[in-house]
TrEMBL record:
<dbReference type="InterPro" id="IPR033949">
    <property type="entry name" value="CobQ_GATase1"/>
</dbReference>
<comment type="similarity">
    <text>Belongs to the CobB/CobQ family. CobQ subfamily.</text>
</comment>
<dbReference type="Pfam" id="PF07685">
    <property type="entry name" value="GATase_3"/>
</dbReference>
<dbReference type="InterPro" id="IPR027417">
    <property type="entry name" value="P-loop_NTPase"/>
</dbReference>
<dbReference type="GO" id="GO:0015420">
    <property type="term" value="F:ABC-type vitamin B12 transporter activity"/>
</dbReference>
<dbReference type="InterPro" id="IPR029062">
    <property type="entry name" value="Class_I_gatase-like"/>
</dbReference>
<feature type="active site" description="Nucleophile">
    <location>
        <position position="341"/>
    </location>
</feature>
<comment type="pathway">
    <text>Cofactor biosynthesis; adenosylcobalamin biosynthesis.</text>
</comment>
<keyword id="KW-0315">Glutamine amidotransferase</keyword>
<feature type="domain" description="CobQ/CobB/MinD/ParA nucleotide binding">
    <location>
        <begin position="6"/>
        <end position="237"/>
    </location>
</feature>
<dbReference type="InterPro" id="IPR011698">
    <property type="entry name" value="GATase_3"/>
</dbReference>
<dbReference type="InterPro" id="IPR002586">
    <property type="entry name" value="CobQ/CobB/MinD/ParA_Nub-bd_dom"/>
</dbReference>
<keyword id="KW-0169">Cobalamin biosynthesis</keyword>
<feature type="active site">
    <location>
        <position position="425"/>
    </location>
</feature>
<dbReference type="InterPro" id="IPR004459">
    <property type="entry name" value="CobQ_synth"/>
</dbReference>
<dbReference type="GO" id="GO:0003824">
    <property type="term" value="F:catalytic activity"/>
</dbReference>
<dbReference type="Pfam" id="PF01656">
    <property type="entry name" value="CbiA"/>
</dbReference>
Length: 501
């Protein structure tokens, strides 16, 4: 049985995903066979494995950090919110139904514990180390009874736990102490130490506080990771992450041609796989921003309508905001629009939905000759094809079935004038196709923009993952992390009662 470690966090977006990826990359560089794991994930950013299973994109990226192929074992339960109170439950990569939060935590979650634990055990049997990521905070005591992703899985598998805190938010000492103190004694015995994330400044000024924290809890801080820009890769907690990581308010790299290219992404409700635009933001001379007002489309050379878990809701939102009318004017003027998955569906003529929204027949924006019918079975695929003379790879995650009735074929969708639509996520990560597409956009927009001839999105991602591995290697106590992975939490860790100071 291979070793393991659980990376928990004091809050959502404390940095669990990137720290887990960094530890995976550092370990694989030490010659170990490593796998990531997250028993239960809640995210609208998902990915399709080669066997056709849907998992969180964060786990797919962590698998890449570990240099292994992602599988459903790495994220056995995925929750995809459809509203504030309900989510689609995806088990072992396949949807098994919609459930309210109360219904899930009231009983269904307990049923999933055995398969989640079995997946972890299988990964530990076949790998030297499994680095697990928690969800939210382990100190969400209202959910502890049904927990299958934080201390529940840690206790069942006897995993040592390292708690990550985001010092850039402030209050990290209180977060570390409070998180530990709220845990039951049996859970506390597994909390082996802390990792400070996103620190700016002189570490020596922090050291007295770290010493006091050790004195109060009996647990060391195993590293202080500096703030690093541009490492919010494929995280799951919402648009705010992408706004920080991918959106350029100014061009970081100078354009290869004479002009920059401006891309506006409609921030539709329940936006899914907004990571599709990361490849555009990686191009020198391309500025990407998320928008929610029609006037923000005025200077855009390309408008992207991204995927969504609520197609009919997104369609209504576009109309209410005045964005639908602005998109129609763009199409009439021959100004480029790209719709991806749910965004492709809203650009069509008609939607028949008795599955997602149960709204029945709804008129689309009518910008593409497409009619969409929602099927109960979800399409999960990894297509390969050709567009604009270039090879393209992508992945599909949708209930909508498109009946294309005209236009030019485009990645199993279609193109009419300067309006493109496809169900394929990830297509813009294919470098040759992305450059060809941007040349077409620039020509239609009248821009003297030239795509950089050597930008490799794959190489940029590898560079980011290596930077994460470097952060762990250079700023964490790697000897202590290895001991935890190999031997578990040390014996005799003290109990920290609430209010102990």
């Amino acid at each position: 049985m291979g070793g393991g470690l659980l990376v928990a966090g004091t809050t959502s977006d404390a940095g669990k995903s990137v720290v887990t990826a960094g530890i995976c990359r550092w370990l694989v560089r030490q010659g170990l066979k490593v796998a990531p794991f997250k028993g239960q994930n809640m995210s609208l950013n998902s990915f399709v494995t080669r066997e056709g299973a849907e998992i969180g994109r964060a786990q797919a990226m962590q698998a890449r950090a570990a240099r292994v192929e992602p599988t459903a074992l790495m994220n056995p339960v995925l929750l995809k919110p459809g509203s504030d109170r309900s989510s689609q439950v995806v088990l072992m990569g396949k949807p098994v139904g919609e459930m309210s939060a109360r219904g899930y935590h009231g009983g269904r979650q307990k049923e999933l514990f055995a398969p989640v634990l079995a997946c972890l055990e299988e990964l530990r049997r076949t790998h030297d180390a499994v680095i697990c990521e928690g969800a939210g905070s382990p100190a969400e005591i209202n959910l502890r009874r049904t927990d299958i992703v934080n201390m529940g899985i840690a206790r069942a598998a006897r995993l040592p736990v390292v708690v990550v805190g985001d010092i850039d938010r402030g209050g990290v000492f209180a977060q570390f102490f409070g998180t530990t103190a709220l845990l039951a004694p049996e859970d506390q015995r597994l909390v082996a130490g802390y990792l400070v994330n996103k620190f700016r400044g002189d570490v020596s000024l922090l050291e007295p506080g770290l010493a006091m924290l050790d004195g109060l809890t009996g647990r060391p801080t195993l590293g202080v990771l500096p703030y690093a820009h541009g490492l919010g890769i494929d995280e799951e907690d919402g648009l705010r992450v992408s706004l920080r990581g991918a959106v350029r308010e100014s061009v970081v790299a100078p354009p290869f041609g004479a002009d920059v290219l401006r891309v506006a992404v409609c921030a539709v409700p329940l936006m899914s796989n907004f990571t599709d635009v990361d490849a555009l933001a990686a191009e020198p001379g391309v500025v990407v921003r998320f928008v929610d007002r029609p006037e923000e489309l005025a200077d855009a050379d390309l408008v992207v309508v991204p995927g969504t878990r609520g197609t009919v809701r997104a369609l209504a939102w576009l109309r209410e905001r005045g964005l639908a009318a602005a998109l129609a004017r763009r199409a009439a003027e021959g100004r480029p629009i790209l719709g991806v998955c749910g965004g492709f569906q809203v650009l069509g003529e008609r939607i028949e939905d008795e599955v997602e929204s149960r709204a029945g027949a709804v008129d689309g924006l009518g910008l593409l000759p497409v009619r969409v019918r929602f099927a109960r079975e979800k399409t999960l695929a990894r297509p390969v094809g050709e567009a604009l003379g270039e090879r393209v790879e992508g992945y599909e995650i949708h209930h909508g079935v498109a009946d294309v009735r005209g236009g030019e074929p485009f990645l199993d969708g279609c193109r009419t004038g300067a309006v493109w639509g496809t169900h394929w996520h990830g297509s813009l990560e294919s470098d040759g196709f992305r450059r060809a597409f941007l040349r077409e956009v620039a020509a239609a927009a009248g821009r003297r923009f030239v795509p950089a001839p050597d930008t490799s999105f794959d190489a940029l991602r590898e560079e980011q993952l290596d930077r994460l591995g470097d952060l762990i290697e250079e700023h964490a106590d790697t000897d202590a992390l290895l001991r935890l992975i190999e031997k578990g939490a040390p014996e005799g860790l003290p109990f920290v009662p609430p209010g102990a100071p």
